[in-house]
Amino acid sequence: MSNAIYPWQQRDWGRLQQMRERLPHAILFHGEAGIGKLALAEHLAASLLCENISLDGHACGRCDSCGWFVQYGHPDYRRVRPDALETEEIDDGAEQDESTGKKTSKTPSKEIRTEQVRALATFMNVSTHRAGLRVVLLYPAEALNTTAANTLLKTLEEPPPNTLFLLITHRIDRLLPTILSRCQRFALSPPDPDTAAEWLASQEVTQPERWLAEYGGAPLLALAAAQGAAMPEKDDWLNQLAKPESLNPVVVAERLQKASLSELVAWQQRWLHDLLSLKLGARVRYFPHQQQALTQLAARVSAGRLQQAVRDAAKRRSVSDHPLSARLFIEQMLLEYTGLFR
What is the pLDDT of residues 176-211, one digit of tens each? Predict the structure, then answer.
């Protein structure tokens, strides 16, 4: 286990150390996706359970507790997350039945289920190891279904002693107000662009500033995209958006129907955001290398139509994981886009 946190998290780590003397019973880490919320929360959990922490609060990485933690086997630590995230660690993608240990073909849930939250009762009723702290990490908190959220709320209302809940969310607006009121919120600082770009370069990412801009300043999303070789499809997509008058929705949809639809929608969302920003007199955020094309297009459409297009793209993204037909989904998206400039 490494004692390193991401270089843009030094200030946030210092803030967490100031809280150690009087820890609340629940901390809610929130901020944009891809900035390292999970890594920081796990790092805090490891340090709270460590038997020999360093002067700056990091876990030692050598004691028995750290050894158990890195294997997710610490008796005083539990992770609660959707089954879909658990099965990502199984090579063939099959779900493993916890009771039999056998793999099944059942589609893993993307929600945090009520049974997972209820299972914490047994964990919290057992004495802690060496009379220490008990830590529960739950993420993403917005994946809690309604019943699971209400079950968790009962625990947060009457928290057991020596227990700390660490909740992580990308979408704080999707959490129950009652849960929010029972957690101490911890907003992560946006990564410093220069620090994040330098870190990406250290990960052997070429054009780090461009990747960082295109993923909204989120270094981990930028790294995943760069390592996933998304550039050819993305550049093809952006080149089509830059020339709506020559764009053929049928041909493009046929060519890109096997691409990630959620990524296509996300790229179009950012493109539309940049168009609207220019129209309102602000700067280009995501695609500065397409400044000229964006400026020309922004002059051809009203701010009202762009605002509606941004709203439509947000709705489209919510259904992009389960379209009836990928090709028709892309066609419709492009037809609506080219219609903006007629």
Answer: 999 999 999 999 999 999 999 999 999 999 999 999
Q: Cis bond leading into 140, ω under 30°?
A: yes
Closest CA to 58 of 23, 13, 6: 13
Residues in Cβ contact with 12 at an 8 Å cutoff, skipping those fewer than 6 apart = 40, 186, 188, 189
- Give the mean pLDDT of 150-175: 94
- Listing DSSP states for 109-122 in one string gives PSSBPHHHHHTHHH
Report d(CA 294, CA 217) in Å as an integer.
20
Q: What does 330-342 look like in DSSP terms, one character per residue?
A: HHHHHHHHHHTT-
Q: What is the pTM of this model?
A: 0.84
**Residue 169 has which token pair?**
């969310």
Q: What is the rounded distance in angstroms from the CA atom of residue 266 to the CA atom of residue 123?
A: 40
CA atoms of 112 and 141, how far apart (whole Å):
8
pLDDT of residue 102: 45
Interatomic CA distance for residues 178 and 166, integer angstroms = 16
DSSP per-residue codes, 125-165: HSPPGGG--EEEEE--GGGB-HHHHHHHHHHHHSPPTTEEE
- Give me the chain's average pLDDT, please: 89
Q: What is the per-residue pLDDT across 132-154, written as a single tens digit (0 to 9) for each?
A: 899 999 999 999 999 999 999 99
Residues in the chain: 342
**What pLDDT, on the 0 to 100 scale, is given for residue 15?**
96
Collapsed DSSP state (helix, strand, coil) of residue 104: strand
- Among 19-33, 103-117, 240-254, name the one with the lowest average pLDDT: 103-117
Picking from 128, 146, 168, 204, the residue whose alpha carbon sits closest to that of residue 30 is 168
pLDDT of 95 higher than 90 = no
**β-strand partners of 127:** none
H-helix or E-strand spanning residue 167: strand 163-169
Q: Give the strand pairing for 95-96 and 134-138.
A: unpaired
- Distance, in Å, from the CA atom of 145 to the CA atom of 164, rounded to the nearest integer, reads 21
